[in-house]
Amino acid sequence: MLCYIGISACTNTGEMETLGGELNYKVDTSGIPRDTIDFNAPGLSYKNGYYYLSGEKYSGIVHKNQIGFNIVTYSSIYLGMLHGSYRSYYPSGKLFEIRMYRNNLSVGKQLGYWEETGNLKFEYNYYNDKKEGEQKSWYADGSLAYTYHYKDDKQEGLQQAWRKNGSLYRNFEVHNGTRYGLQKTTICYELEDEKIK
Predict the structure, then answer these.
(1) Same structural domain for residues 108 and 126?
(2) Last residue of a domain, which of 93, 113, 133?
(3) pTM
(4) Span 10-42, pLDDT tens digits
(5) Is residue 177 exposed (0-12), middle (13-18) or buried (19+ Cβ within 10 Å)?
């Protein structure tokens, strides 16, 4: 099942777009038909980042079985470009990941889920294909693995990461490209189930 969000159209001026001081993540999907085509269908091609059907830029949904990753994807396409929601599913049918695109660029939240528990696996934030704001990842049990902060695709601010046992092993800040604090750790002994052997 696909979910569509119909909201006002946006243009990309190359600068950060804002609405009321907040980044503009809106995507107009009103012109995208609900027609779905398989990635391997006759006449469908993918060239230089664009989808074509019989030589014309395609609009609709592209379904693909990604064998190596063992997932199924559904991509919303408008005039050949990724535009709107991109969803992928585990073989069980459970949601693996959802992303949003605008004119072939990642925007907004990208959410990933653990198949076994349904817990969040990651939550990334993008603006025009660049990491922006807080990026988080969790272990399957729901405990936090890391929280990093980005500005214009570069780390900026507090960066922290934890082991499965909850111990903090990265704790540093980045300001204008310079790192301060605990950046890397090397374990001098082997861990098994987070216990010293």
Answers:
(1) no
(2) 113
(3) 0.79
(4) 333 345 566 666 677 889 999 999 999 999 999
(5) exposed
